[in-house]
Amino acid sequence: MANNYVIIISIQAYPFCIISTKYIKLKDKIYEVFLMGIFILFFTLLIVATCKINELKNIQYNQPEYLADKKILTIYYSNNGNTKNVALNINYIVGGDIKEIELVEKNYPNNIFTMSKQVRKQIKEGVLPRIKDIDISDYDIIFVGSPIWNFSMSLPVKAFLKNNNFENKTLIPFFTYSGGAKKSRIVKEIEELTNTKDIKKPLFMFENRICLEKQQIIKWINNI
Ligand SMILES: Cc1cc2nc3c(=O)[nH]c(=O)nc-3n(C[C@H](O)[C@H](O)[C@H](O)COP(=O)(O)O)c2cc1C
After folding, report:
1. CA–CA dist 133, 103 (Å, integer)
2. pTM of the predicted model, to two decimals?
3. Contact by Cβ (8 Å): 162, 128
4. Is the beta carbon of 100 within 6 A of some atom in ligand 1?
5. How far apart are CA 85 and CA 19, in angstroms?
6. CATH code for the domain defined by 65-223
7. Which of 75, 157, 191, 208 could bridge to 146 as Cys pair (CB 3.0-4.6 Å)?
8. What are the tens digits of pLDDT across the range 28-38?
9. CB 154 near ligand 1, within 6 Å
């Protein structure tokens, strides 16, 4: 009796075994194709990255014509140091002076949530923070750096652009960000705040792009 059950169960299980073996084979195939895909993608990325690194490594700085015999200022606002880092590199490459935009009242809170809340409130109310005066009258070329806040420039940099006269000056904006910015809108905003159209192509640099930063900056400055 027990033997009969075993036979019946075995006979009934047979089609399932075939199906499941086929299934496993199909799964294996998909898995193989998937692994192959990852492998190809990885090597393509590796080749692209190596080419990019080599291309950037060979970049040399030759002072472009638009900077020749000009008085250059690099000015920046930085809450966490990323924009400051890019500003220091720019200043090291092009020379001239470097200044920081400072707030009159105490700086933004260190806590990112409290800070974001304060920034959102200021944006909503159309309030710009009060910043310390900076004399830019001596300069012809101004590299101006800002972190991206809420897809736009930081408020202290907006205040700097609004408070100063940029007649006969060339503005060269640069930004650090973590992923999202309304790039063409930002250039329009700079035009509106400064009343000048003499604005060169901005640099947008990801906050974690550290190792080849200098070369990327040189490439940007050479090609503005
Ligand atoms: C209040 C606030 C808003 C931000 N909004 C954006 C944003 O909209 N898009 C983005 O890519 N990064 C955003 N970030 C990230 C900063 O732009 C990024 O970390 C930048 O490199 C910071 O520069 P800093 O170290 O010079 O302050 C935001 C950061 C803060 C504090």
Report:
1. 10
2. 0.79
3. yes
4. no
5. 61
6. 3.40.50.360
7. 157
8. 778 788 888 88
9. no
